[in-house]
Design brief:
The protein has 253 residues and is an alpha/beta fold. It is 33% helix and 20% strand.
Length: 253
Amino acid sequence: MNSWLIDMDGVLIHEGNALPGAKDFLEKLSEKEIPHLILTNNSIFTPRDLSARLASAGLNVPEERIWTSALATARFLASQSESRRAYVVGEAGLTTALYEEGFVMTANEPDFVVLGETRSYSFEVITQAIRLIEAGARFIATNPDPTGPSAEGSIPATGAVAAMIERATKRSPFFVGKPNPIMLRNGLNKIGAHSEQTSIVGDRMDTDILAGMESGLDTHLVLTGSTKREEIPDFPYRPNHVHDSIKDVVEFI
């Protein structure tokens, strides 16, 4: 393949540590000057933050090679609104991305309520989001992941909080991050790649592999993250390749 899209958590790193083969995989892509981009549904951090996080794990990834659901959301919303007013539930990764697209963060007649990842969801903020959606603001969420990883186990993530707001407002959110092909198309455009010549490596059947399949990419599932081998038959679609870790993907470069 001529280009690669690569998920981060569960593929390259886990709990701050590089996974087997991650460094070799990235180094080989760089040595061969193969276009590639790290895609993540994590909207908490900016690309600069994530680049530093990867560096601390021994992985050299410049911030311009990182594309987040926050960036994809901000770019999408900029094409949807002239006034660019948003009420944001999220952290620096999301607020910075929206700010750079010219958005004003406000609770006064926003066009959108934008839900992203945060380390601690405030009940007061969620209540405000519900009321603004009821008043007519469009409901947007960065990604549908219901849980995220932690050292102690799963923690509720954007998808779970979105479900609560949806139940309260009877308004379904529009998710911009994976598996929405919008995020992958953004990534492909960013590196000047074509879907038929691109592979995606991910650890989740319901986001990475689904997005890759719907976008016409060659799909590689690694078993170092969310999806376990015995869970693959639960899905009505299959990845093109299944690997124990990204170490086994190096030979496909």
